Each structure stands twice: as structure tokens, then as C-alpha cells.
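Please, structure for the following, as C-alpha cells.
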Amino acid sequence: MKVMLVKDVYKLGRAGDIKKVADGYGRNFLIPQGFAVLATAGALKQTERIRKQAEIRRTEQNSELKGLADQIKGIVVSFGAKAGDTGKLYGSITTQDVATAISEQTRFEVRKQQIDMQPIRNLGEFTAHVRLTMDLVPEVKIVVHREGEVFEEEAAETTEAVAQAVETTEA
């Protein structure tokens, strides 16, 4: 089935593109959700107009979310989890956990569908991509440490805070 995209669709194409998709995907998802229309002769005449409108919409969204992308880019999310001797977690860190942690730090609601990563099942450092728009995809650093242990950066921050507290009490 050939469809013309009316809106940008992640991992498929941008608005105005003509794509060949599976019949079920087009009939059951793209067309009912308003992401695409059948690629008929009448629809093909509107391709350029749809592309221009989508480009304007895309630039507006990118300018609005640019500050948020810069804010998210520097985030380090730390999770304490129970793990076995080999470093394998008893549970997993999911996209929902990461979305909640980012939302708490930025005061902006990030949905779990916007985060590109596999569930984390081991201790260590990982990266995840937060898909704000098709063009803005900041990276987030995820650190998973053993529950009860202190992550190195957190330990450095606490030792600095203790040192500053000692200096102020001595003075």
C-alpha cells in the first residue's frame, strides 16, 4: 500500500513523503491516527503544500524545545539497585524509570515512549536517547550502582560538602 505522510512518523519518514507500507500498518495505524492518507492522484498534488507546512511546524517545535534539549543533555541519572555477585540486577531499569527520573530533574514531563534504550539488567554506565522531536535527540547518562553503595560522583560531592562544612565550623 502506498501512503503519503501528513505528519512526521519516527523511523518511517517526514511529512510529504510517499512511502510503501504494509497494508495492515497503513489501514490500521497510519490512516486512522491521521499520520497518512492514501497516495491517490489528488493527494499527490498536495505534497508540496504539506511539506512546507510540516517544515514550519518542525522549526517552531525545535525552537521551543531547544532549551529543554540543552538542559536534558547534561543530566546524569543514578539508580541504586539490588544485584548479584556477577553484577546482574534482580530486576531491571526500564524506560519508565528513566522517564520519571528525568521528569523529576527537569520539571518537564518526558514520556517513556520518548526514550530509546533497552531495559538495563546489569550494573554500570549506560546512555539513552530522549526523542523530543525528530531533530532534537539529546543523550542522557544512566549510572546503575549497587544498592547501599555510593556512586563515585555522589561520593565526591558529599566529601566536598563535608570539607566545606568543616572549613566553616573552624572559621
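Helices lie at 23-33, 41-45, 47-73, 95-106, 152-170. Residues 2-65 form a domain with the Ribosomal Protein L9; domain 1 fold (CATH 3.40.5.10).
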